Amino acid sequence: MRPVIDMRGIHRIFESEAGFSHVLHDITFSVGAGEFVAITGPSGSGKSTLMNILGCLDTPTSGTYRLSRLNVADLTDSELAEVRATHIGFVFQSFNLMPRMTVLENVMLPLAYTGTPRSSRERRAVGALQAAGLAIEHYDHRAGVLSGGQMQRVAIARALVNDPDIILADEPTGNLDTHTGALVLNTFHRLKEAGKTIVLITHDTNVAAAADRTVRIVDGRIARPDGDASAERRLDPARVPEISRSPILGGAR
Predict the structure, then answer these.
(1) How does pLDDT run across 45-98, given as a tens digit for each residue?
(2) Could you tell me where the Basic and acidic residues compositional bias lies (predicted)?
(3) Which of 86, 116, 166, 250 has a Cα-to-Cα distance from 195 of 20 to 30 A?
């Protein structure tokens, strides 16, 4: 199985007035095409920082990230924006829908930025909503009147509308009850069967169990099967100031 996500020795260090915060330590793992992988761990373990790097919303302080064999560090800002728009679909816990827009308008929205004709936008949005499993009678409803499970399916459809290779889902069942969360997970399974690669971040071990395999993060490190955090190649603390002055260094998190 060829990897579409390949991370090697990823470190992420943030600088603030309080000093340096080493959030990710030597993260190394890969995800094959068509795999469904859950990244799990307690709050504050670095999952969201890792998701931002996976989604090309942030850049590691050191290490190599290859996305579909592209070295992300070599891409320009415009190329990164194109990767995010065409190769990655994002699904968030808070849905991030426009409440006064209809379901169909919400799903069509990403296509408006690509110059896609309206007729094609509508056709593709309907196809994405069908793939996400939302009933057709909801398409002309305003997003703000939907249930949590329905809103999450709209969010999944919006992530699918550009036909991305990879779906990144950050706590997609966090605001849902158990039954509705299970329905959303079934949607991800159908997408996997259709050939999509799915990376789902969750703190819920029951949700993680629905994936093909689980990568557990503890204190910014990938945990070994026995539960201990691996730290085989930690950075020398003396190098932290040098790394943290990198032009790609972001703010505190």
Answers:
(1) 999 999 999 999 999 999 999 999 899 999 999 999 889 988 999 998 888 899
(2) 227-239
(3) 116
pLDDT exceeds cutoff 60 at 241: no
Residue with tokens 């939302």: 134
125-to-90, 102, 117, 159, 175 alpha-carbon distances in Å: 16, 12, 12, 10, 24
10 Å CB burial of residue 107 (0-12, 13-18, 19+) is: buried
Nearest Cα neighbor of 143 from 120, 125, 127 is 125
pLDDT in tens, 210-219: 999 999 999 9
Q: What DSSP string runs through 75-96?
A: --HHHHHHHHHHTEEEEETT--
Run of H or E including 242: helix 240-244
- Count other C-beta atoms under 10 Å from residue 56's C-beta: 21
Instruction: Give the Cα separation of 155 and 97 in Å (integer).
Output: 7
Return the structure tokens found at 114: 């690509």
Helix, coil or strand: residue 136: helix
